[in-house]
Amino acid sequence: MVNPILIIAISLFGAFFIALISPFVKRTGKIIAFLTIGFDLYIGASLALKSLRTPVIAYTAGFKPPFSINLVVEPFSAVFLLIVLTIGFLISLYYLAHPGEEPEDKFFTLLILNLMGASGIIMTGDLFNLFVFFEITAISSYALVSIRKQKASLEGGIKYLIISSIGSSLFLVAIALLYGQTGTLNIADIAAKLPFINKSVALVAFLLILVAFFVESEIFPFNGWAPDAYQGAGEGISALLAGVISKAGLYALIRLTFTLLDLPLRSKLLIVFGIMTFLIAELSALKQKRVKRMLAYSSIGQMGLVVAIFGIGTIPALKAAIFQGVNHAVSKVALFLLVGMVIKNLGIYKLDDYKGLGRKNPLLGLLFSLAILNLLGFPLFAGFWSKLSILLSTGKQGLYLLLSLILTGAIVEVYYYVRFMKILYERNEEASHLEIHLLEAMPIIAMAAFIIIIGVNPGLITPLFEKASEAIFMKFSYINLVIGG
Amino acid sequence: MTLFYILLILFVGGILTYLGAKISKHLGHAIAFTSSTLSLYFHSILYGKLYGFTIDIGLFKLHAVAFSPLSWLIGEIVVVIGFLSILASFKEKHSDFYYLSVQFLLAGMLLFVNAYDSITLFLSLELVTLFSFFGIWDGRKESAVKYLIWNLLGAYFIVAAIAILYRFTGSYFMNEVHYLGKAQKLVLFLLLFAGFAVKSALMPFHVWVKDAYRDSPHSFTALLSGAVSKIGIFGYFLIMFYTFAKFFIGAKYLQLTLAWLGGITALFAGIYATTKDDSKELLAYSSISQLGYVVAGIALATPLSISAGAFQFVGHAIFETLLFFTIASVAYRTGTTRMTELGGLIKKMPVSFIGLLFGIIALSGIPPTVGFPGKWMLYESFIIEGRILLAAVIFTASITAFLYSFRLVYSIFLGPLPSKYEDLKEAPFNFTFPIIVLLIPLLLFGVQPGIVLYYIDRFLSIFGIGKIEHSYSYIVTSLGKFNALYVGIVFAAAFVFAFIVYLLGGRTRKVHQFDNFTAGEVVDESYKLHYVDDFYLFLEREIKGFLKLRIESLYDWLSKFVDGLGDAVRRVYSGSHGDYIVYLGFTLLLLILIYGGKLWF
Amino acid sequence: MVLKIIEYLGIVFGVIILGLLYGGIARKVIARIHRRYGPPFYQNILDVLKLFAKSNEASHGVMFNLGPVIAFTGVLVSLFFIPLGSFRPLFSFEGDIFVVFYLLVVAPLGMALGAGEGANPNATIGIARGLTLMLGYELVFFLSVLAPMIHHRTASIATLVTVQSAFPHWNVFPFFISAFAGLIALHGMMGEKPFDQVIAPHEIASGPMVEYSGKFLGLLQLYHAVGIIVETGLVVDIFFGGGNWLTFILKTFFLFITLVIINAVMPRFRIGQAVKFYWKYPLVISLIGLLIVAIWR
Questions:
Q1: For chain C, which chains pass the contact test of at least 3 CB pairs under 8 Å?
Q2: Which of A29, B278, C141, C257 fits a 20 to 30 Å CA distance from C160?
Q3: Lowest mean pLDDT segment, chosen from A296-310, A465-479, B35-49, C12-26
Q4: What is the ipTM of this complex?
Q5: CB A6 within 8 A of CB A47
Q6: Residue A96: inside a domain, yes or no?
């Protein structure tokens, strides 16, 4: 019996173990982190597989909900759990050969805690627990972002801290409001009681939750922290932000707005804010001179796109949004890790300094190109299918304006990414040679393989998304699952 | 399943070429040669058969069926030109990835012309875009980026139309659409048309062509112009006579508008071509111009005009490819495509000269070459339909073809030979072979146009459009008749006669190129005797105002605007957390006011 | 078969002689207008014979040699697709007016190619001018010929000749506006002043012909001679009712001499002016002609 609680427990154990032994044995943090997250992934994967057949619910203290705290893994959360843990695992694999941020033991402790928080957000069925996990993730992220003792990191971390804590306090207010109305903190229970509560309270709670998680999932105009945080953080942490933290925020946003507070204005708000984010971020990325900042804006933009597509709310749209989320996570993480490798070797940050790097280092260039082409949605790569699904599902609902705005943003995105590729492959005799550790490149190669395999045969993975989107679409199946059973 | 195996050969061949080239360049070449030969062979034996496949990739089912006789025809054009282009490219310098892209590109094009559902259509379209992008990338990257942006714009038009079409029909098949309002059909049609127009470089979507053709590897340009542009043409056929057939056949004004668009493209591009100094730029505009005829023909949608358009694109595939191959061989030997730096190469590269000569003869549409029957049918159909002005525009465009094609042949092959090219040799077999091969259909289809018309006939009858009266040698319309065979025979006889007259005269002696009439001046290399710069200056002077009007300036303005917008939007992220908190609070307040207000008042 | 070939050869020789005589007479007429005595009317025939008799002439290469041959071929081919009086070769039904339009281009192309290899900038300038001028007159000619074509719903020259077989049915009467534009175009097509920028002996030393001598020039003379008959013949067939061999010769002769007389008293346009001229007046005239046909229908 795999129990979801194991993920929390093992992570906590691993985190404390690092703290425990680090004074005696140096430089073991990365190995312990790798093992811990690897084990998490193993449990997460088996949970996910299991949950596709029958959802897994774990109770604490032997009571059934709504009287106890519970962890729920059903297909939608399973997909997100898989994303988060796989990305986390790949990042920890990357750090095996890549120097971690100093101080290393604390860094890896935080990394594990962060992942634990993210998995907690995804698995929990309780609103207050969600808040706790949310705080764990957020606080560890602030620390991770600013762990590098540089001005930019500290600045990014502080901004992140300020904005995000406003978000979490809004969330707390919303929890209080809902608790006052329903007397329960169980998500399914509140969802079931939603029709009977005061409409104004529900509305305010909804808006507060929306804003709180818009902050986390980097939606404009609540994402002011994101560019600085991405830019200031270590590259692995930027990858973590793109692949894990923002995805956990996204999960919470979707879960809370779809299941908890299923209000009719949800769809419109998500679409409007999502597409606004997408366009503004893509346009902002156009003029960036620093690679990481450009990637940061692109990451924000992609999150906006995914949120907008979630907003459409039909099963094909949900499926497309999840697919795109996965592709974005994979591509963006790969890109950040690659940038990390470049920075480790050469210490360059500017776009123009990348001149000729891809030509000089074929493997680096190939991986960069694959990740970019996938992100841009070219055929033979997974991104093609997700982008196509997005467009088809948008068109299917008759949202022509949205369709055209997505395509406009996509053109802008293509332009600055291809320009980046051009710089990578420009003729430059002075381009440096990179020492690429195979282990370091391993996670990226794995992601590239994933991109291509799914690109050739998307059928391998789409049933999973299908199940997940059905699960989130039918809100009552979740309610029945948790409190009806 | 043969088609599937052809695609598989090309995909696997592409990957193997890439890997093989890492071991040895020759191994890579051998693999690329083998796979392109195999695909050529297997595709050729599909002649006259109905073929296709369906594969399930989980998310979608991909259907490929040769549902239109043009599928095989264009597919064959693709594999032949692809084979020749790969052959020629062995002599040029390419990255290993280039061969992969060419083979993937061929596969993409073959899939496109057989695509039976919109997903396959879009998939293959994107494949074509991406891998032709990589082909140009091997030449010059700026132009490749320009190509990509424009062609993606086109692809996005198409995918938008596909998405909307899917909404209304609930099906991914490109079958004829029913149950749609006229306005809906019109919008969808125009979206698809605009998408294909980018591919076939119809004005005003032609601006990528000049750069892409000029800067792509020389042998790849032949493929781009000869085969890739046909993707757009096939797309026109698909939407006009299949998906929107009933709608389009009835929409007279739409037909006329599109035909005029084609006519104007033909004329304007022809005029632009006369002003270009670079031979590949000149040919790029000539290619645009020639495809303008095609659009004008098929948009008019009578059996005769469709046949004209279809014949013209077959001709275009032959002569434009031939011309680009000759330029490729010249560029291979001299290292330049700028006409001002060339001259007199006829003495050094006779085969290339013959190729170029016949190329321009066909291009200007002089019988009995493949360029004429299409143009002839085009005029006849315009006049039968009473589209006199359109006929006049096309006719003027074809006169510009004389202008620029003479400039091309003169500047490169005639005139004095610069002394730096004294030791030049004929281009290697890899270049002369494609030239010689392409001369055969150029003349054969010129005297026996029925060979091509047979396919077009089948297309017309399958899609229920009508028929035209013709045999292998002649074509008859209600206006007149053109017997290509007789013209050919008379031509040959007249040439023999004239040649006999020539032989009757006295002996001649060969003189040096500077041994000519210079009003008593003794000339040498330092005198510029090659009249190449500003060839048609007196013409340009007369149409100065017209040449200034350029759609490019609009696009430049647009791209500057987007750039400026990006710069402005970027400043929203001021970097001050105070601002961000204000954004957050303000937006939250606004939301509560808007939605709360609705609820409370 | 053999008879047919002999017949054709006879026609070709006849046309050549006729064309040379026309040229000779034109020289005489011009000379008389210029108050000179002028050469005898058969001078051109003697010239050709002389040119072919010359040997050891300068040649610049294969294309240089073949250029005049192709030019001559071009007009010969066109000849067979135009009804010449009562002589209606098989071929006049096998290719219509558009075929002739394009066949007529072969000859200038051949000359241009040959002259090009001569590597004399004068020649190339002449050709560039010729092609530019073509942009002017060809369109006008095309539009003016369209008028009777559209009215009679045929593009076959032979059919056009048949429908206007009797005197009052000549196309020139109903379509006098188009015919007028067509004549202006013909004037440019034949390179008569004020449209002789291609040759322009005082500026560019006879243009394309600058390097040619001996039998090459002879061939070009033959090309020119046949060209006269072909071009005037085309206009006669379309607008002036063709006729039997005698009336055909008379009509072409008078048409030609009219053009020559205009030529004799005209100065020369700058090339830009010439093209502009065509785009202004004759083009408008021909469009008016077409408009009338459209209304009349």
A1: B
A2: C257
A3: A465-479
A4: 0.90
A5: no
A6: no
Give the bridge partners for B469, in sequence order: B476
In tens, the pLDDT along B285-344 reads 999 999 999 999 999 888 888 889 989 989 999 999 999 999 998 888 888 888 888 888
Of the candidates B409, B517, B538, which has its C-beta nearest C272's C-beta?
B538
Three-state secondary structure call for residue A350: strand
In a domain, A416, yes or no: yes
Distances (CA, A) of A346 to A99, A339, A340, B485: 14, 10, 10, 71
For residue range A94-141, what is the model confidence (pLDDT) as tens digits? 888 877 777 777 888 888 888 888 988 888 888 888 888 888 888 888
Range(s) of the domain holding residue C224: 2-296
Instruction: Report yes or no: C26 at the B interface, CB cutoff 8 Å.
Output: no
Is A425 near chain B, with CB under 8 Å?
yes
Helix (H), strand (E), coil (C) string for B112-154: HHHECEHHHHHHHHHHHHHHHHHHHHCCCHHHHHHHHHHHHHH
pLDDT, one tens digit for every residue, chain C (297 residues) = 788 788 888 888 888 888 888 888 888 888 888 888 888 888 888 888 888 888 777 788 888 888 889 988 988 888 888 888 766 655 666 678 888 888 888 888 888 888 888 778 888 888 888 888 888 888 888 888 888 888 888 888 888 887 777 667 777 777 888 888 888 888 888 888 788 877 777 777 777 877 787 888 888 888 888 888 888 888 888 888 777 778 888 888 888 888 888 888 888 888 888 888 888 888 888 888 888 887 776
- Helical pair A438-456 and A362-376, crossing angle rounded to 10 deg: 40
User: Within 10 A of C284 (CB to CB), how many other CB atoms are there?
Assistant: 12
User: Is residue A168 one of the residues assigned to a domain?
Assistant: no
Nearest to B233 by CA among B113, B103, B124: B113
Chains that touch A (3 or more CB pairs under 8 A): B
Taking CB atoms and an 8 Å cutoff, what residues of chain B touch C272?
Answer: 538-539, 541-542
Q: Which domain holds residue A386?
A: 264-468
Residue B518's SS3 state is: coil
Residue A397 in any domain: the answer is yes
**What angle, rounded to 10 degrees, do the helices at A382-396 and A438-456 form?**
40
Residues 144-173 of B with CB under 8 A from A: 144-145, 148-149, 152-153, 156, 159-160, 162-164, 166-167
A385 neighbourhood in chain B, CB within 8 Å: 59
**Closest-CA distance of chain B to residue C263, Å:** 23
Residues A416 and A369: their CA atoms lie apart, in Å, by: 13
Residues 6+ apart with CB under 8 A from B502: C65, C68, C69, C72, C215, C219
Sign of CA dihedral C158, C164, C170, C175: negative
- Contact B506/C52 with Cβ under 8 angstroms? yes
Give the burial class of B125: count Cβ atoms within 10 A of its Cβ; 0-12 exposed, 13-18 middle, 19 or more buried. buried
Distance CA B389, CA B381 (A): 13
In chain A, the residue whose alpha carbon lies closest to the alpha carbon of B105 is A379
Provide, as residue numbers in chain C, all residues whose Cβ is less than 8 Å from the Cβ of B482. Answer: 94-96, 98-99
Q: How many domains does chain A have?
A: 1
Chain B neighbors of A425, CB-CB under 8 A: 137, 141
Interface residue of B10, B54, B125, B573 to substitute, partner A, most A CBs within 10 Å: B573
Q: How far is residue B453 CA from its own chain's centroid? A: 20
- Which of C53, C121, C216 is the closest to B529 by Cβ? C121
Residue A283 near chain B (CB below 8 Å): yes
